[in-house]
Structure to design on (399 residues):
């Protein structure tokens, strides 16, 4: 009986306490809502109605009334950056960084935001300094990735190597582009200082070490290292070593042979072994057909066995791998020789001209990530800056 009496007393008491607490929370929420300026709600309304310009003006008014609204400043800065108004975005984030009472966590956030502003505005030197200040913070990984991007765009390969090595330590992941950085250094040496072969060799040795250390090295990386090694050997007049490297491409990265087919042709021609090369490339084409390889094989057959044999190869090859570009290239080679084969009553030169107008857009390489198209083959996409995103085949071959 005493137990039931206590419950009769306790139940109304708990109900009353709950009512008081709810009333207090409601009043507090109401007072906080009333404290918000009308411009804040106007800004939200403009955003919901897809009127970003008027929303920004309303939020700026709120920021003037209450300069300590850091989250609103961050939102404004992001809006300005997305709209391409980089000066306004930078000013917003600079105003935050100028506050002496800004907590460390929010200061790091503001520094990361302004670094993104500088990067998008093309102010790479300022972006680099800002990202470097974020080392040993929660933004260290994203800052390291941004620094890698900055050094890549500046072609500062030594610092790119340092940054990507540091990034690899942070993430614990192998970085595929490290091999390409060393290859870029070797290529730069060969292009800018052809006589400084030792420096190019040193850079290429580091690229080889990167290949050996990588758990997931790609055919593209192997192909590029071998192609550079062949170029160095060719520059030193060592045709045997050049051929060795070029033939190694056929074994290690057979889908990239089309990119070295011209070099193979010159190398074998120097020792009067074009017939042997033709046999090699015919076998290679059967397993890994590509337009670049087709061009060289067709030209070799045309010069060694005549136009009839060349067109017999072309007919078989184009039947198995239809290519308007391949047909146009064959016409071009045939038109340059005296052994041109009549294909139809239409003049060959006119037929080539008609086809050429429709094949120009197909004679490109395309990035599989962003779709950027180019006539030249790139190891790093100029559009999305991704590495090894270009298949070694033309657009028409990928369709």
């Amino acid at each position: 009986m005493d137990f039931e009496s206590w419950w009769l007393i306790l139940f109304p008491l708990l109900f009353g306490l709950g009512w008081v607490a709810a009333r207090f929370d409601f009043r507090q929420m109401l007072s906080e809502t009333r404290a918000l300026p009308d411009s804040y709600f106007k800004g939200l309304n403009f955003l919901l109605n897809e009127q970003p310009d008027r929303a920004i003006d309303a939020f700026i008014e709120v920021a003037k009334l209450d300069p300590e609204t850091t989250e609103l400043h961050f939102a404004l800065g992001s809006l300005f950056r997305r709209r391409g108004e980089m000066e306004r975005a930078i000013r917003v984030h600079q105003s935050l960084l100028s506050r002496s009472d800004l907590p460390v966590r929010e200061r790091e956030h503001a520094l990361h935001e302004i670094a993104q502003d500088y990067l998008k505005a093309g102010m790479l030197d300022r972006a680099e300094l800002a990202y470097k200040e974020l080392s040993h913070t929660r933004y260290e990984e994203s800052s390291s990735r941004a620094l890698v991007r900055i050094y890549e765009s500046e072609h500062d390969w030594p610092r790119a190597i340092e940054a990507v090595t540091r990034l690899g330590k942070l993430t614990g992941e192998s970085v595929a582009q490290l091999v390409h950085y060393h290859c870029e250094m070797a290529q730069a040496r060969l292009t800018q200082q052809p006589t400084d072969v030792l420096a190019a060799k040193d850079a290429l040795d580091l690229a080889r070490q990167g290949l050996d250390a990588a758990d997931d090295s790609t055919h593209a990386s192997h192909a590029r290292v071998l192609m550079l090694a062949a170029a160095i050997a060719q520059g030193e007049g060592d045709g045997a070593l050049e051929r060795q490297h070029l033939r190694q491409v056929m074994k290690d990265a057979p889908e990239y042979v089309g990119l070295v087919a011209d070099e193979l042709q010159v190398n074998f021609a120097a020792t009067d072994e074009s017939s042997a090369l033709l046999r090699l490339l015919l076998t290679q084409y059967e397993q890994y057909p590509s337009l670049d390889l087709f061009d060289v094989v067709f030209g070799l057959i045309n010069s060694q066995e005549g136009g009839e044999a060349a067109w017999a190869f072309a007919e078989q090859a184009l039947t198995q791998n239809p290519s308007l570009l391949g047909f146009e290239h064959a016409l071009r080679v045939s038109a340059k020789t005296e052994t041109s084969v009549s294909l139809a009553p239409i003049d060959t030169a006119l037929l080539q001209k008609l086809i050429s107008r429709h094949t120009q857009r197909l004679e490109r390489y395309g990035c599989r990530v962003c779709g950027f198209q180019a006539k030249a083959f790139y190891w790093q996409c100029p559009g999305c800056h991704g590495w090894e995103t270009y298949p070694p085949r033309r657009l028409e071959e990928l369709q």
Q: What stands out?
A: The chain is about 70% helix and 0% strand. The first strand starts at residue 365 and ends at 366.
